[in-house]
Design a protein that fits this description.
The complex is a heterotrimer of chains A (about 200), B (about 110) and C (about 625). With about 110 residues, chain B is an all-alpha fold. Chain B is built from 3 helices and no strands. Classes of the chains: A mainly alpha (about 200), B mainly alpha (about 110), C mainly alpha (about 625).
Amino acid sequence: MSAHEHAGALPPEPEKATLEGRNKILGFWLFLGAETVLFGTLFSAYLAFRNSTLDGPKPEELFQLPMTFIMTVALLVSSLTSVFAVQAMHRHKTGPMLGWMAVTIALGAVFLGLEIYEFNEYAHEGHRFTTSAFSSAFYSLVGFHGGHVAFGILWIGLLILQILRKGLTVVTAPKVYVSAIYWHFIDVVWVFIFTVVYLMGKV
Amino acid sequence: MTENHSASHGTETQRHRAEGPQKHIIVFVLSMVLTIIAFAAVAAGNVNKTFVIFLLLGMAIVQVFAQLAFWMHMKDRGHFFPIIGIVGGAFVVLMLVALALLWTWW
Amino acid sequence: MAAHAHTVKRYPGFWGWLWDWLTTVDHKKIGILYLVAGGFFFVIGGIEALFIRLQLIRPLNDFVSEDTFNEIITMHGTTMIFLAAMPIIFALMNAVVPLQIGARDVAFPFVNALGFWTFFFGGLLLNIAWLTGEVPDAGWTAYPPLSTTAYSSHHGVDYFVLGLQISGIGSLLGGINFMATIINLRAPGMTFMRMPMFTWASFITSALIVFAFPALTVGLVAMMFDRIFAANFFDVNAGGNIVLWEHIFWLFGHPEVYILILPAFGIISEVISTFSRKRLFGYSTMVFATILIAFLGFMVWAHHMFTTGLGPVANAIFSIATMAIAVPTGIKVFNWLLTMWGGSIRFTAANLFAIGFIPTFVMGGVTGVMLASAPADFQYHDSYFVVAHFHYTIVGGLVTGLFAGIHYWWPKMFGRMLHEGLGKLTFWTYMIGFHLTFFVQHFLGLLGMPRRVATYLPNQGFDTMNLVSTIGAILMAFGILVFIINVVVTSLKPRHATNDPWEDGRTLEWAIPSPAPEYNFKQIPLIRGLDAWWKEKMEGNKEMKPAEPVGPIHMPSPSILPFIMSVGLFISGFGFMYNLVVAGIGLAITLMCMMLRSVFDDHGYHIEPEEQKKKGEVPA
């Protein structure tokens, strides 16, 4: 039996108000445990191949710290705006919540745009997916992360549209919460990527 | 099915004020600072390689802990199994890093 | 928002029956689907096993060519592990765990169905390879460089990679689902330490799945990228590394074998205590031993790689860690024996399988400790000694355990008891056949017969034992046939099973009718201790005490989307091999379905109290 109706009054933490909502949040955390191993394996391959550049350009030559920094800031800010979205949700302020969600995916799109530009540059510099074991591992790891960002943008975009139609309810609230947890997670993964791939690549 | 009837019954005490943004902004500032230090340490160029690597890893871990604890609410109650999920995953990642660094090339 | 109280549409006739099964999200029906599909693939894997043994019945045989032999051993291993053993484990988990914890379904019924259909279509994709003539032939472990396009240029290994990838998604979803179910959906009063052992085993196994399968996922992705998109993970000339594949594969592969055996341990605990009329000895220790086995299971993978050249330090570490696992496992064995000691034992077919499991699995376990010694393993590696070890643990262990569970829980799933006489005949022919087949293989290995050879020269001491092994395999096949006959014969009988047909049931599933009604429990029960049902019976109660009043029961709606999503992945599998546009279309179908699922919320339907009074039926 799902939640009671109180003439439209939402409970304080609407995402946790139903059993379905609590199940979804727990299930998603368990999925993130699996994703941790998934990205961990991609990192493992990258670490194994960090020196297998063959004739291709080396990390020190390739990576541009200023652009990486901008991308990092964009994603970090977007993770903060995602926090604000959930806080607005807890205050039952649907308008600001949707606004923060929109800013989140806009910044995500900035990140993605820069990353596509970056990959394009690398391709011209002779660092392609098929160049070496290093390049295959690099594009797989960073590309999978980018793919996760892209999926997140589509997902949160879809949620914005859904909530415009259905409003914030005990059914839609868990979806927002889960998407925010997802978005934070891909920022956490990015912390390790910029540290291990880009920064350690230039050391 | 058992339900967790949260305080939507109008009886008082759900003095649940939604938390303010302060803690989260602090985490943001901390993350920015750690990030800037990390980038600066590498951009500086002349520093001892081993020291920098440990510094980078250390700061990444602190940043990740802060984001997990505050932005993802892992420090709040009701997060026992989420913690198991992430810690379990991290444990396997430890194996993966070991095998990549120690047992792949010789 | 109130749930709509519409009832679910049911269509008449054959097509209605088919639609019901294609759209079901009911864990009981999904359990039956897993059992039937897993059983189907088990027969395929069994035929492949017979072909192996027929080829090896005598030296220099030409029953099949060498290339075909490589295909058969690859498909036998892959099918048996991923498409037979794991699905039948999921069958029992689905059929039993929600009932044992007093829940009405799993946490995510839709995802449960999705898990089944992805497994099924992944398995279908893999086995369709037989029809194309391009069959995987690089072993179930698919080591590069053999599995790279340099040495396996036809699509065989692609079928392996893509089929397993799709099937693996199903397994991961199942793991997440059962963890969430057991954490969140236990009935009031059922603390973790009051859960039945099979539920504990399912919980730990699900955790293993969640942490181990993603490594396989990435390994398969890397192999797919190498083969289809010219990546260089395993191309040594481009800086790649073949040992990395072994590491990643076995980092998954070793936990996988614990995923296979822990559920069997759970089944044995249930069956032995029920048919000894005695509670399980050392329950808490059993729980902690299971957790320890799972934890250690992630730290031993390189014992599959002792001969690759990791060096003596690495080999020593993994040797010791591997031997350590014998300790909690041994504790479990003693606890089963101590459960039986002083008990009032009934030798039903189910219990015969459970008791037969114990010495058989112990034999497999001790050869495991022998293999754990790295220097000794340099002799055993790639010989039939290893083949004997893993068949003793997986077939003598897991499959025997599954037979115990299937005989034990058949009445709860189908409302009928399997015929006891036929069950006992199954047991004796299958077990004797098993030992004949695999016991001699220890000695074949020690005499130097290598693995994966399509034939062998005469007069090396291999001839008689290979003949004996093949005869054993035929006897095993006969035993399986007897089981199938048992299933058919039983299905013709009327549905007369009571709620507690063994009369000594200890756990919650025996408190409700057989088969369980659509909603499982009319009222969620109140749990007052371990072996909750036994406790109530011993106090003279005929029913569990309810934890809630009678009321309308909310059920999830059926959906065709899981089926369509799996078809989309199936299509994309072909696309990745033959035409990337088709791959895109397949993935787009799956993504569209995900979108639809997100946008159109499932409000479920209600079963009103008046309908609950009638006995719910699970249609055949």
